[in-house]
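Quick one:
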Amino acid sequence: MLRVTLNGTTHEFPEGLTLLEAMRSVGIEVPTLCHDPRLKPYGGCRLCSVEVEGQSRLVASCTTPLSDGMVAESHSKKAVRQRQTILRLLAEEHPGDSPIDERSEFHRYLIAEGLQPSGAAHAGAFKDTSHPYIRVDMDKCVYCYRCVRICEEVQGQFVWRAWHRGDQTRIRPDKGERLMDSSCVSCGACVDTCPSGALSDVAVELHGVPDRWVRTTCPYCGVGCELEIGVKDDHVVVGRPVQDSPVNKGHLCVKGRYAHAFVHAEDRVHSPMIRRGSHWETVSWEEAYRFTADRLRGLIEKHGADSVGVLGSARATNEENYLAQKFARVVAKTNNVDCCARVCHGPSAAALKVTLGTGAATNCFDDIEVAQGFLVSGANPPENHPIVGARIKQQVLKGAKLVVIDPRKTELARMADVHLQINPGSNVPTCHAIAYALIEEGLVDEGFIAQRTNDFEAFKAFLSDFTPERVAPMVGVSAQDIRKAARVYGGAKPAMIFHGLGMTEHVQGVDGVRCLVNLALLTGNLGKPGSGENPLRGQNNVQGSAHMGCEPSHLAGYTPIAAAADLFEEVWKAPVPRQKGLNWMEMVDAAAAGKLKALYCIGYDVYFSNPNAEATGSALQNLELLIVQDLFMNETAREFAHVFLPVASNFEKDGTFMNSERRVQRVRKAIEPVGNTRPDWQVTCELAAEMGFGEFFAYDSPNCIWQEVQKVWKPGAGISYKRIEEHGIQWPCPDENHPGTSILHTKTFPIGDRAAFSLIPYLPTEEVVTDEFPMVLNTGRTLVHFNAGTMTYRTPNRQLLPTDFLEISPQDAGALEVADGEEVRVTSRYGTTTLPARVTSIVKPGQLFATFHDTKVFTNRITSRHRDRHVGTPEYKVTAVRIEKIPHNSH
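Output:
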């Protein structure tokens, strides 16, 4: 410890702090303009200068390291006089017509010193009102360079630049006449750090300064960023990052910071509705429950319990998903329960469960800063998991090695040491060829293999059919690049694997993830910091929804029914059905066959989200009762539902989410539920009571529900609301004294001391190109929109990207005479749609990529009917299609 005297009082501090950090930690407020704790110390503004004994000049406290015996004064006459001079000079440069704004750090300093801005307008200062979220007025800039630095050091985007030199220096974007024309990703970090009001939030201008901030968890992707939501007059205004969050480290993406206007959208459904013939009728909650319960009860009595299915929601809380599966098993008495994990990360859970014993990520996001190498396969983190993407980018910029396996030349692929731009559907042979090269070139961890794996010799023999030279032609990359990928991943110690839906949404989705586990086992990259095999979950609570038991063969805790049923029956005081349940895709088949009669669908637009929409629609049409519980009249409800139950958004209720790294975090109510909406948990309990099962659903709060979860889920027993009040905890956490588990499999695996290598044959998809359908379509998300577009298309994000797009290579566009931005018709064996073309070298000739967020485009009209052979996940990533120009006179 260091003994330091500050303003006459002696304190002890750990080594490694700056003088500014030490002063602030003991309550001494030193003004700064250029300092932000998220950034490297800069020392440019000199406002934080203090007097240090033995120094002839004032020192910038933000860049001065603490030393033992140091004596410092923050408010000596000399320090105060210099601060006043700096502020007076800045005030004389600041536009005189600039109103004093107490939100601005700079203006608060001026107020404290009794100063007023008195400067003239600056010629050439960049001003822009084109962006839907960010206002720019660089006339107010104090040249602290925080916007430039945070864009570089946190987001890694390099948008803001200092142009020219000396007194001609101007801060402007990297390109274009507007911020909208630049490479800006609208994360708002520059606004968040700006001390002078040169950059500001449009939402605050429109709705006013928030009068309170509520800490909660982001409702978008599975990263689980912590944010504070700003509220004024019970209206959600804007978000800001939680500075000390272990997940996002004081950063957010465009969706987390800004895309919340859906809460107050005009078409938000405020009251329950029942379909009467061809029209919807608004009814009371009591009538809606009575109608639903009578119909549901009658169908169960007539056709049996397994004629009913229940779907939980990746957008709902853990508590609400727990109740959804309990409703299925206790009220409907069926194991026909599932969630959207079926169509995205079901293969991740299954593969990791069978190979390692736990169907979840092995490591934590903090290991990104430990890793010396990354293998990112079938994932596009900067777009789909932006904060994780930014953290990976920063580590790569600092020298970490990177291998990207992806059919598209994504942002990370452009940064990679090697990019394997494989053909869609060829993940399995690609991973096998990398494994072969790792062994052949001696890049394996022999000690780890000997101590912690089985079947290595059999695996080694199996790989003889997957040499890089033999695999290269079938996957579309060179043998040299496959070997280089092996050297980069195998040579970096430690190295993390991240994968996404580009691995799972295939007929060999489970198999592909098992092949990635093989690579981690070969290199010993398991059970240690900076390593592991980590799925990046798509939605905010897709990890939690399945883990809470919205899965036909597992109860809460992702425990097989046979192993856990006795405990659940003891806690529930009700029997648990033992018969095999249907997963969601099997429910579709059963509905098409007339066997599934009723579906209770919570927070999931299944018609719009399922592949081969015509087949899904035909199945839903067969249902005698479809209950949709959601915020909006989504496509499923609009076309097929019989009753609609309107619910509260995530900002209108309490609970928890579970993110991609197994972290359980709090969700907090910021505003009252809009209109006559109710939280999902309350609706499910009240419907259960109407069905005659109220005694099993007698909860008075989400915390009450969670306390029951703790009783049935032993690895989560130590995660109480009280313990996660500040930050979430990663399970396993078996008791109140346990700190949580950031890294799994450190010494053994839940399946035993050793994990076996998987010998996976390559079984190509049946979806093949033909003369009629000569191109391969791949689909996925984009940065500014989210899944079915239910939320983001009801926000100004729509201005950032008005509709979906189809990426096509310049060669294919030229051959088809398709211009950039031109509408094209895309047809598959399953349907047709139209959308604008984006001509780009991101995709290879013969391959296409489309987003799927816009209901008007409805990309899933054309996606494939094929499914993963183990868990039924649809193959969204490979569909044979043809493209046609649309004649102008056809509009």
